[in-house]
Every structure is written in structure tokens, then in C-alpha cells.
Specification:
The complex is a heterodimer of chains A (433) and B (419). Chain A contains 19 helices and eleven strands. With 433 residues, chain A is an alpha/beta fold. In chain A, the strands form two sheets. Chain A has an eight-stranded mixed beta sheet with strand order 3-2-1-4-5-6-7-8. Chain A has a three-stranded antiparallel beta sheet with strand order 9-10-11, with no helix packed on it. In chain A, helix 1 crosses helix 2. The radius of gyration of chain A is 22 Å and the shape is globular. By secondary structure, chain B is an alpha/beta fold. In chain B, helix 4 crosses helix 16, helix 7 packs parallel to helix 11 and helix 8 packs across helix 13. In chain B, 59% of the residues are buried. Classes of the chains: A alpha/beta (433), B alpha/beta (419). The interface between A and B is medium-sized, with 26 and 25 residues.
Chain lengths: 433, 419
């Protein structure tokens, strides 16, 4: 098949005042591509431009980005080769702009959305043939300057040539780590990541916030403990993602996806996490700026407790010294309720990830697409990295079954005896804290 | 008379220089463990075969409160207990100095296999504190005490010397910086591979590229890096056995053809006096750097840069690479700009400099740099350098510098293939 002759010289960024719009647009500008940043006002678009400059740490980016308001759409969109949509995660708002864009865009110009989980097919409904043939999800992770993951969700009408062009362009020019993803709720990364986060939120009711974040902390292969992660993304965003999954998905662990009732009460009270200054989320600061932790029963805060469990501390020490085999052995043999809890979550993550092969990512990609999104998008130790660390498929399957979980056929069916994970340096995800 | 005439490099391992080990909550022990593990895995060498271990490290005591790094290597495996170990310090040339000692031991016939571990963890402290620690590579009391970021200022002075003696256009320094970053983008282990950087940025001025020492701006500086690089040096006897066991041909295994080692007076004031004197005689302005290079050429039995296929040089700042270009003899004194203008130092040019991205692009974990350079040379000569492969490379040089061009070490490495 002939190689595409497309050239991307100019990109229009919608919603460029928002975090994802501005920083994603900045990634195009960093590839020396002329960008027009659109926002509701010129001032807001200029603020987006400044964010992109800050991300690149270079004033040169100003040369490539022009700030504009939506009044300029008619003038600018007809000369854009790619329109990158970074508007609010609201189908009505997106549709309003898509209706305008499809009339202005030149035929063949690419339109992509940075949506983190809304249906691409639905966004294409009622649009022109040309729009649908050029429409896809390019889900960058936040912040894209640090997290290179890019979930690519093509509308079914996009021809092969365009798919190949976009894949190559994102990889070689935008230096993204591509993951071909199916058009399923929350796509791949958020689908898997928020199962873990939501289940952690459920367990916090029984075990307490401090203990859950201590047990599932960075030493279990993540940059940030789960409840602190929910505080970072915001409880409102968490709710939008899990509700979307519950509404559209039936899988073997959907019971762990239902948001606990206390979280709704928190949202009702404006306790949305870090963004709700003063109100907090799972964690807050008191008048003296000391860290406090949520009491789930009455949604009050108490001074954060230092939890210390011998085997957890030993595991952290082993990681600090680079003795990863010892760290894994300690996790495998950890005693008591706490040991069971940690294994339940790690093995649950592994099992849930493998079970999604063929559903959220193409079967032909095996676990590798999911590995890429969890490492490059979430900064979590990729699921097959755990399988390798645990000693292989057979050992991991036995551990999953012993933990009372179901080992998926996609994992059991792996015949290769060697290492599975292709992500380099998985040890970097084992954090010594 | 040397017992072993040829000392071979059997390969090794480099950690990803983009990693921040302090942020990962890890100690220098973890960095060393991963680097050694990577090296044993990559080369399939049995730890039981290691005759001696040499660690190159500049300031572990300052950055991590951990000294005695030679002995720490034994933590890796019970098989290493009893092996003689030592740690060597020569500022940024610590890696090359360790290699010199390991090579000497093998030449003398004391051991058949030596492991060289270059290592530095620098992100454990803030940049101001780190800058002060680096000042100990100069004459601290006279050149660094109370000075914020002393080294950019010292290498800025090298720029001033060039300006005064021959004239110097900033555009040429910007080009050196841009080429290093460009090469680093294709190096999967380079610290800056995902950074936004090009010549336009090097030429820009403002908060993101401010002046840090005379002509030196942020884009002219090498990086603050956590990293380690390991190489294995072997006698011909061991290399033959290794080649046979791994289905390799001895003629395809790189060996050290020659080396040079020369020390300049520590104070930059004296180096400046020497530079002015050298100019009057039409000689290169850093006589001791030049001596190390010429000695290496002689020992390797080569005439000069036309016999080299690539150079990994010590671009701690763009001015040091500018000086290296001419000191290797690629141009006459004061004419490095000609090689830059001609594209000679680019991959595909007459003599590519730093296909790895060098210290500016690949990163500069001080004590590891000398080992990293030799490992990159090894990759080039074994045609495993990936996208930055210099086609048909058979002979390569590495220049590792400590302080303000005070300790100068050059290695010339080659393969016999095609001979």
C-alpha cells in the first residue's frame, strides 16, 4: 500500500485554556508545527499558550503558537490539517463544536478528541462522512510532557491509510507511546486503573484511609498511593469515570466499580480532593498545615497516623537497596490480613488487566498495549512486569487462585516460558517508599 | 614488557540516565546493583570469573553519605567475596582513571578479567548544593568557595580565552549543543531524549536559557544525572575463551589500542597563561589535553584524526567540545569553527563527535561518564549503537576530562575486522 502523502503543517486546538488542551497542543508545537490555540477569550487562549511554553521550558514555542478566540474559527479552521479537541468532558459541548468544525474544515483534515473515555462512535453520530472518516480519539495522559501514553481509538469509518499515518505521526513526530484501544468505556488505562482505585476506596471503609494507602503505597509499583491518587485527579472526575463504566460495562469485577456511598456524600459537600482548597478529600491540612486524614464514618479529619508494619518496612528497605527479588519474596509471603490485602490488590490488577485483552485492546497486541498504557500513562508497574517478577505465568496463576480470584484464560494461555514484559526497566516502578 | 599486549572490552551495561533514583526512593547501592546485574546479564559473564573490580566515583560521600564504594560491589553476589576492589577519584575523569588502572593490571598479567563500575548519584541534593560539591573538582578554596555554580564560570573563561585569542561566535557553541541534543533523541538511554531542544532554543535568551557563566548559558551545560556504566576488560586469553563460548570472532571484539593521560596545573589562571604562550607558538591552547591525545595516537600507532571513525568527547560544556574538536587535530588551532560549519562533527560527517549525545545530551553522572563513553565506543565498534550507528566504525577515541581540563585521559579503541 502506498505511503500517505499527508503533511501536518497547522493544528487547531479547541479548549486550549484547559490543562489537557494547552499541554497537548504544546506537544504539537514542540514538533515545530504551527498551532492555533482557541479558547472562549484571547486572554484564556494566551494563558494556555503560556502553559505550553512552561511545559517545554522554552520561549521558542511562542513562535509556533497563536492565541485565538472561538470568533476566529471561521478564519483559521479551513487551513488546519488537524483539529485537536480538548474541550470539557461533556458530550453536548463537544457536539456543539464538532457541528461547527465539520462545516469549516477542509476535506480530509484530521479531527481528534482527547476525551478520556467517552464513546468515539457516539461523538461521530450525526456528523458528515468526511468528519467520521477523519475522526478518532487521541487520549494523551496528564501531563503529556511527562507521561507519553497516547490511546488511539479510531472511529470505525477511518480508513487504514489514515490510521497508519496517525499512528506513525504520533509515534515519530509527537514521540508518543501509542496504544491501539477499543471504543469501550474509559478505554484501556482508566478502565484498569480506576478499578484498582475504586476498590481501594471501598476497602478504606473497613481498614481506614491511612492503612489502605500505606499498604498499597509506592512500594507496590506506583508513583502515588491510590487514595492520594483519587485526591489528585478529583473525586468528581473519579465519579464520572466509574459511573460511565458501570453504565456501559458488565465484567467479572463490576461489583468493585460501584462508587461507595460515602464518596457521593463527599462530592455533595465539595470535598473533591486537592482542587477543593480547604475542604480536602481523603487528605487535608489543618490550620497549622499539618497533614490530616479523612474519617470515613463522619467525614471529619484527624491527624494522619503513621502506620508501620514490619514486613512492609522490610520490603521498602529491600527496594531502596535494589534487592528486588527479596522485595518480591516478602510480598509473596507477607503474613496476616495485611499480606492478603496487598496480594489481593496486586493480583487483582494483574488478573483484571489480562482479562481485558481482546476487550479494551486488540487480542493481537496481547498484554503489551495494556502494559504500555499502565506504565506510560499511570506510572504503574505494568501487569506483565508483575508476572515476570512473581516467577512466570504458572506461579502467578497459582497465586491468583490462592488469593481467591479467577485467573483469566488470556494469562493461563501464555505458553512462552521466558519473560513477557517488554517495558524497559520495570524496577523503576518499584518505589522505595 | 607487558605480559598481555592486548586488553579487550567485552561489553557492559549502562543504566537509563533519565532515571531519578532519589525520586524512586533508592540508594546508591540500588544503582550499583542494577548496573552490575545489567552488565552480568548483557555479557553472560559469570561473577566467579571476575579478577578485580575498579569503581570510578567522584563524590559519593558528599552526594549520598556513602564512601568505600569499591567494597560495596561485593554486595552483588557471594561469588565476588574475596575479589580485590578499589575506588578511584579524579573528578569527572574518575571513570577513565578506573579503566586505566584495570587495563594496567591486565597488561601486567595480574588478572584476566576486570570489572569497571563508573557511578554517580547527583539528584540527591538541590542544584545549588550540587554545584558547590562540583566545585571540589576545581581548587575549591581559590576557585569555587562561595561561588554559585563555579564550573560554568570556569568553562565560560575558556570561551573568553578563545574569544580573545582567536574570536568565538556563539552560533558555533549553539550548533555543538543542538547536535548533542539531536543525537541524544535517538539514544534510548540518554537523559534528554524527550526534552524540547533545538538550535533555536540554544540561541534564545531568557529565564529558560539564562546565562550561567560568561558565554555559557543553560543549553551549553551538561546535565546533573544519576547513572552508572559498567565495562569488562579482559586479557587476550580470556577474550579468546569468551569469544569461543559465545560464538564470537576475536577480531570483532574491541580492544584498547592506546591511551594517553596528562595532568594540567589545577588553577585556571595558570591554564590561561599556558594558553596565551601556546598561541604565540602556534600550538593548541590546552597543551596537556593535546598531550594526552597525541600520546594516545602514538601508543595506538595511528597518525591522527583521519584514522578515527568517531570520537566520544567530554562536552561538560560546549566550550570543552569546541576545544576538543581542534585538540584532536581535526582543525588547526583556533579553527574548530570550520569543522562545525562543514558539518564534520555530525553523524555522517568527516569525524562524528558524540554520536551518543555526549554529556550535554546523554547526561553526565560524573564518575560514570568515562565508563559510559567507552561503552558507547564499544557499541559503535560492535555495530550495536542503534539509530546513531556510525557506519563501518573500526577505530574510535574517548576523551574524559576531570576539572577544568586538569586531568585528561584518552582511550583509543579498535577492532581488527577488515584487516
Amino acid at each position: 500500500m502506498a505511503k500517505s502523502t499527508r503533511v501536518i503543517k497547522k493544528v487547531g486546538v479547541l479548549g486550549a485554556s484547559g490543562n489537557m488542551g494547552s499541554l497537548s497542543g504544546g506537544i504539537f508545537a514542540q514538533a515545530d508545527i504551527e498551532c492555533v490555540f482557541f479558547a472562549r477569550s484571547l486572554d484564556k487562549a494566551t494563558a494556555g499558550l503560556e502553559a505550553a511554553v512552561g511545559q517545554a521550558r522554552s520561549d521558542v514555542l511562542r513562535k509556533y503558537i497563536k492565541a485565538a478566540s472561538y470568533d476566529d474559527l471561521e478564519k483559521e479552521i479551513p487551513t488546519c490539517d488537524w483539529i485537536f479537541e480538548g474541550l470539557a468532558e461533556d458530550m453536548a459541548i463537544k457536539n456543539e463544536f464538532f457541528a461547527k468544525i465539520e462545516k469549516l474544515k477542509k476535506p480530509g483534515a484530521i479531527v481528534s478528541t482527547v476525551s478520556s473515555g467517552l464513546s468515539i462512535r457516539k461523538m461521530g453520530e450525526g456528523r458528515t462522512d468526511d468528519f467520521r472518516k477523519c475522526f478518532m480519539g487521541t487520549h494523551f495522559y496528564n501531563p503529556p510532557g511527562k507521561l507519553p501514553a497516547n490511546e488511539l481509538i479510531f472511529h470505525p469509518d477511518v480508513p487504514k491509510e489514515t490510521r497508519e499515518f496517525v499512528y506513525d505521526f504520533c509515534e515519530k513526530i509527537l514521540r508518543r507511546v501509542n496504544i491501539i484501544t477499543e471504543d469501550t468505556a474509559a478505554f484501556a488505562g482508566n478502565r484498569i486503573g480506576f478499578q484498582f482505585l475504586n476498590e481501594a476506596a471501598m476497602y478504606a471503609e473497613k481498614h481506614g484511609v491511612d492503612k489502605v494507602d500505606y499498604l498499597l503505597g509506592p512500594y507496590t509499583g506506583r508513583a502515588l498511593a491510590p487514595l492520594a491518587t483519587i485526591d489528585l485527579v478529583g473525586l468528581d472526575v473519579h465519579k464520572a469515570i466509574v459511573d460511565n463504566v458501570v453504565a456501559h460495562v458488565k465484567d467479572e469485577r463490576i461489583d468493585t466499580y460501584k462508587m461507595p456511598a460515602y464518596m457521593q456524600k463527599m462530592i455533595d459537600q465539595g470535598m473533591l480532593g486537592r482542587k477543593a482548597k480547604g475542604k480536602g478529600g481523603y487528605f487535608n491540612r489543618d490550620a497549622e498545615k499539618n497533614k490530616t486524614t479523612l474519617n470515613i464514618a463522619d467525614l471529619t479529619f484527624s491527624p494522619t497516623k503513621k502506620v508501620k508494619i514490619d514486613w512492609v518496612e522490610k520490603t521498602k528497605q529491600a527496594i531502596q537497596d535494589g534487592m528486588y527479588e527479596r522485595a518480591i519474596e516478602l510480598i509473596k509471603t507477607a503474613p496476616g490480613v495485611e499480606g492478603d490485602l496487598v496480594r489481593h490488590f496486586i493480583l487483582g490488577y494483574v488478573a483484571y488487566s489480562f482479562a481485558r485483552i481482546g476487550e479494551v485492546t486488540p487480542e493481537a497486541d496481547g498484554i503489551h498495549g495494556i502494559d504500555r498504557v499502565m506504565s506510560s500513562g499511570f506510572s504503574w508497574l505494568p501487569p506483565s512486569g508483575w508476572v515476570d517478577l512473581f516467577g512466570g505465568v504458572k506461579e502467578t496463576v497459582a497465586m491468583i487462585e490462592k488469593a481467591g480470584l479467577t485467573a483469566p484464560a488470556q494469562l493461563k494461555g501464555i505458553k512462552d516460558k521466558g519473560k513477557i514484559c517488554r517495558v524497559a526497566d520495570v524496577s523503576k516502578f518499584l518505589i522505595g517508599r | 614488557m607487558a605480559k598481555n599486549k592486548k586488553v579487550y572490552i567485552l561489553g557492559g551495561y549502562q543504566t537509563d540516565f533519565a532515571r531519578n533514583w532519589a525520586k524512586e526512593g533508592k540508594t546508591i547501592q540500588a544503582l550499583m546493583h542494577e548496573a552490575m546485574d545489567g552488565a552480568f546479564t548483557a555479557t553472560k559473564i559469570d561473577p566467579a570469573d571476575v579478577g578485580s573490580i575498579h569503581v570510578g566515583n567522584f563524590a559519593g560521600e558528599l552526594y549520598t553519605m556513602q564512601g568505600h564504594l569499591g567494597a560495596m560491589t561485593v554486595n552483588y553476589s557471594e561469588k565476588l567475596r574475596g575479589v580485590p576492589t578499589s575506588r578511584h577519584e579524579a573528578a569527572c575523569a574518575s571513570g577513565a582513571i578506573s579503566t586505566l588502572v584495570a587495563r594496567t593490571e591486565i597488561e601486567a598479567g595480574h588478572y584476566d578479567l576486570s570489572m569497571v563500575v563508573g557511578i554517580e548519584m547527583m539528584k540527591s541534593v538541590d542544584s545549588k548544593t550540587g554545584g558547590d560539591f562540583l566545585g571540589t573538582a576545581a581548587w575549591y578554596d581559590k576557585e569555587a568557595k562561595g561561588v554559585q555554580f563555579p564550573f560554568p564560570k570556569l568553562f565560560g573563561r575558556l570561551g573568553t580565552v578563545y574569544e580573545e585569542l582567536y574570536g568565538l561566535k556563539y552560533d558555533h557553541l549553539a550548533e555543538i549543543s543542538a547536535i548533542n541534543y539531536e543525537n541524544a533523541r535517538n539514544n534510548p538511554l540518554a537523559q534528554t531524549r524527550e526534552w524540547y531542544m533545538n538550535k533555536q532554543h540554544a540561541l534564545s535568551r531568557g529565564t529558560f536559557n539564562m546565562e550561567v557563566g560568561g558565554i555559557i548559558h543553560i543549553t551549553d551545560c551538561s546535565q546533573v544525572t544519576d547513572g552508572a556504566a559498567v565495562t569488562f576488560l579482559a586479557s587476550e586469553k580470556f577474550a579468546k575463551r569468551y569469544a569461543k563460548a559465545h560464538g564470537l570472532k576475536l577480531k570483532n571484539i574491541p580492544y584498547i589500542m592506546g591511551w594517553g593521560h596528562a595532568t594540567a596545573p589545577m588553577l585556571f589562571d595558570i591554564k590561561t597563561e599556558e594558553a596565551y604562550a601556546a598561541k604565540k607558538e602556534g600550538k593548541y591552547i590546552l597543551p596537556h589535553t593535546r598531550k594526552a591525545i597525541v600520546d594516545a595516537y602514538k601508543r595506538a600507532g595511528i597518525k591522527g584524526p583521519k584514522d578515527l571513525d568517531l570520537v566520544e568527547t567530554h562536552d561538560c560544556f560546549t566550550t570543552s567540545e569546541y576545544a576538543a574538536i581542534e585538540h584532536f587535530g581535526l582543525t588547526a588551532p583556533g579553527e574548530a569553527y570550520k569543522a562545525i560549519d562543514n558539518g564534520d562533527i555530525r553523524i555522517g560527517g568527516k569525524l562524528p563527535f558524540n554520536p551518543s549525545g555526549g554529556l550535554i545530551g546523554a547526561g553526565h553522572p560524573v564518575g560514570a561518564t568515562g565508563s559510559r563513553q567507552l561503552l558507547d565506543v564499544f557499541k559503535q565498534l560492535t555495530e550495536t549503537a542503534g539509530e546513531n550507528q556510525v557506519e563501518g566504525a573500526k577505530v574510535a577515541a574517548a576523551l574524559n576530562i576531570g576539572g577544568s581540563a586538569t586531568t585528561n585521559v584518552v582511550h583509543i579503541v579498535g577492532v581488527d575486522k577488515g584487516k
